[in-house]
Every structure is written in C-alpha cells, then in structure tokens.
C-alpha cells in the first residue's frame, strides 16, 4: 500500500525521535506531544476525578501512572424526558472518557475537511460517527442531549442553548486540535473555538465563561507551537482571551503557583477557594490547569501528575496542563511507557467514536496544519501582488 506524503514525513520524524530523542520535524513532534499528552491526561485523571486531594492521597499516595478502573451502573432520574443512564464497564489503563471522545469527534471533522472547520462540519461528525447504542459508556448523557438535538435538525449553533450543564468545561475539553491546526496563530484558533464550542454552550449568561475558556485553551495551544514560545507566553495568550471577571479568578490561581515552593501547596488553596461549588466549572479548570502547567515549568510528565493529584475535576485540569506542556515540549518529552499504553489501548476500544491512535491523529492534524499554512501563503502572495500593482 502506498504511504501518504504526510505519513512518510511523520514516520521519518518518529524514527528520529527513537534514534536521537530530537525529531527533525518540530511541528509534528509537538503536535504529537500535545495529542498524546491529552490522551494520557484524560485517562490518568479520570481515575481521580471527583475526589478531594486528601482522598487521592489516602488511597494512592501519589497517582503517577495509568490505572484501570471499573464503572458501575447508575441512573439519574430526570423530571422531564428519559432518565440519564450510565452503564457498567471496565476501563483498562489508557482508556479515556467523555471529554476526549469530543476531542476525537472534533479531530474526525478536521481530518475529513483537511483543515479548519465550521460548527456545521462538527455537527456532521457527531451525527455520522456516534453510535447511539454506546451512550452511557464513554460518551454520557450531556453528549446524548447534543446528539438528539442535532438529529432533530436544530441548527448546530443553537444547540448549546439547550445542552446540559452550562458553564462546565464541556467542549472546552475537546478544543486543542483547533489550536494544533492553527499553529502559531492564536487569534485564529480563538475565533474558531468560540464558533465550535456553541455546540455545547452559549455566551453571555452571567457567570458562564465556558466559550471564553475554550478560546483561551485553543489560543494557548496555538501559541505553544510557536518556535519561540515559553511557559509565560502561553499563559499570557490564554489570559488575553478572558474578560475581566474570569481573568481575575485565573490570575489568582497563577499567583498561588508563582509563590508556592512546591506544587502540593496548591491543593488546599484550590480546595478552599472552590469548596461547595460544582467541580467542573470551566474557569476553575483553566485556573488549575494553568497553575500546574506553570509549576511544572512546561514539563509534560510533571504537569500531568500535578493536575491528576490536585483534586476535583482532575482529568480536565490535566488535559489543559498536559496538553499545553506536550505542545511546548514535544513527543520526546513524554514518558514512552505512557505513550505506548494509550496507543495500544485505543485500537481495541469497544466504546470509542474513533479507534485512532494519538500518532495517527497527530499525522492528520499535522497535514491539516500544513494545508492551512499553504492557504495562508497563497493569500499573502495574492495580497502582495495586489499591493505591488497599486504602487
């Protein structure tokens, strides 16, 4: 079988990683690093999700590897409509959860389009790639609500008005592929994220900054892929997407990180600040994720471990911290055993929307990023020719 040009380039890049630890193609290495880190962070953090840091410490001491878990049957009665059903199943090490399923759906839409997508493109991926019989395993009730609304023909940009759990991290946790294909262009990534995240949320409701957080994560991912990016520049780009109220909250968490002597000092501070509040609020997740990213100095392994053990919505915080660190440092900075576990698990996953390895996804996103680069070059060339004619 003929290998595609993108696949051949990526094979060469990955061979260089294995041989020397420094792949020749830094764009691919960093896209792969972001993709693998997000996958790992979701799997590792899903085990500790919803627990306090004290509960995590009491049970495991420190979670620093991928663990198996068993999910039980449960049912959540609804006043209107059918009950929400969660089905019993085993999750081996490396299996992810609902947030990364949305990430995979977004990636599928990008790969089908070969570049930037609209919210209608994303909606088609939801309709075409989701098997409704698998709701309750990885994808959950909030995803089922979105799917059913799209199937009825409701415009994709209106669905977020009626989806469940507004202001939660929701589709913000799927959004890093938008930053990857808009590599080095944070403004474009933020604009795309604001559009696409309307499939889950809405802008303008008091206290709901989920769309702005989505824009911050996408823009920060695009910034992390810039050749001269730093931990500080990535954080600054994320903050620039936020209105005053959530920015102040995120900066408070970053202030704790900047003055802490070690990451464990963050745990009681975040616990006290968010006591009694829903665990998955988008602004808290961004604050905790960026704080761990800062404390880790952009190192993926440390960023993921800090977030996984921070408490509350650990998988989402780890997605932010680990994904940004992976984009900044590249695949060679990821623990090889972690990468191997998630790569092997997904190809036999009975519940996922896409049995696509992180490497396979990275290859497609890399090619889409190059396609966007070529489009930008064409536009610049045409503008330059027009400006020359005017002179």
* The level-1 CATH class: Mainly Alpha
Number of separate domains: 1
* Cα end-to-end separation: 51 Å
The CATH architecture name reads: Orthogonal Bundle
Main sheet specs: 2 strands, antiparallel
Helix content: 55-70%
Question: What's the total count of β strands?
Answer: 4
Please characterize this protein's 3D structure.
The protein is built from 18 helices and 4 strands. The strands form 2 sheets. Strands 1-4 form a two-stranded antiparallel sheet. A two-stranded antiparallel sheet has the order 2-3. It is mainly α and 391 residues long. Helix 2 runs antiparallel to helix 16 (314-329), helix 4 crosses helix 5 and helix 10 runs antiparallel to helix 11. It has one domain (5-390): Orthogonal Bundle (ADP-ribosylglycohydrolase fold).
Briefly say what this structure is:
With 391 residues, the protein is mainly α. The chain has helices spanning 5-20, 26-48, 53-60, 98-113, 119-129, 141-151, 156-159, 176-181, 186-196, 210-224, 231-240, 244-259, 266-273, 282-295, 300-308, 314-329, 336-346, 358-390; strands at 69-71, 74-76, 84-86, 89-91. The chain has a single domain, classed as Orthogonal Bundle (ADP-ribosylglycohydrolase fold), CATH 1.10.4080.
What are its keywords?
two-stranded antiparallel ribbon, disordered N terminus, 4 strands, mainly alpha, 18 helices, 61% helix, 391 residues, ADP-ribosylglycohydrolase fold
């Amino acid at each position: 079988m003929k290998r595609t040009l993108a696949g051949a380039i990526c094979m060469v890049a990955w061979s260089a990683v294995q041989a020397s630890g420094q792949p020749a193609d830094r764009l691919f290495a960093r896209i792969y690093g972001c993709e693998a880190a997000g996958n790992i962070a979701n799997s590792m953090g899903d085990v500790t999700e919803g627990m306090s840091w004290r509960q995590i410490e009491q049970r495991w001491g420190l979670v620093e590897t991928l663990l198996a878990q068993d999910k039980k049957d449960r049912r959540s009665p609804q006043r209107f409509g059918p009950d929400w059903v969660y089905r019993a199943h085993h999750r081996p090490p490396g299996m992810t959860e609902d947030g990364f399923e949305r990430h995979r759906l977004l990636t599928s839409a990008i790969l089908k389009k070969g570049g930037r997508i609209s919210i209608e493109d994303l909606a088609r991926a939801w309709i075409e790639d989701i098997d409704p019989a698998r709701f309750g395993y990885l994808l959950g009730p909030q995803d089922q609500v979105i799917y059913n609304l799209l199937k009825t023909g409701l415009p994709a940009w209106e669905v977020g008005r009626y989806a469940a759990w507004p202001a939660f991290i929701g589709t913000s946790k799927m959004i890093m592929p938008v930053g990857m294909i808009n590599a080095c262009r944070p403004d474009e990534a933020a604009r795309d994220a604001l559009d696409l995240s309307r499939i889950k949320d809405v802008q303008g409701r008091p206290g709901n900054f989920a769309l702005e957080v989505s824009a911050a994560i996408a823009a920060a991912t695009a910034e992390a892929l810039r050749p001269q990016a730093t931990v500080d520049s990535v954080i600054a780009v994320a903050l620039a997407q936020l209105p005053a109220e959530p920015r102040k909250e995120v900066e408070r968490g970053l202030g704790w990180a900047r003055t802490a002597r070690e990451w464990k000092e963050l745990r009681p501070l975040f616990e006290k600040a968010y006591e009694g509040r829903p665990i998955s609020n988008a602004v808290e997740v961004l604050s905790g994720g960026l704080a761990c990213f800062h404390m880790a100095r952009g190192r993926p392994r440390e960023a993921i471990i800090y977030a996984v053990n921070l408490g509350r919505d650990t998988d989402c915080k780890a997605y932010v911290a680990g994904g940004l660190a992976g984009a900044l440092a590249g695949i060679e900075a990821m623990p090889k055993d972690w990468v191997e576990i998630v790569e092997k698990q997904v190809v036999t996953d009975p519940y996922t929307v896409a049995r696509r390895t992180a490497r396979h996804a990275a290859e497609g996103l890399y090619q889409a990023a190059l396609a966007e680069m070529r489009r930008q070059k064409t536009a610049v060339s045409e503008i330059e020719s027009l400006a020359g004619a005017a002179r």
